[in-house]
Amino acid sequence: MKANSLAWVILLLMLGVAGAQQTNLFLDITNGMSIKEIEAKAAKGDASLQCALGEFYATGFYVNRDYAQAIKWFRKAAEQGEPEAEYNLACCYHKGQGVATNEVEATKWCRKAAEQNYLSAQHAMGLRYKDGKGVAADKVEAEKWFLLAAGQGYEKATKDLTNLEHSLTREQIAEGKRRADDWRKQHNL
Question: What pLDDT digit, counting tens, does each position of 31-48 carry?
Answer without folding.
Answer: 778 889 999 999 999 999
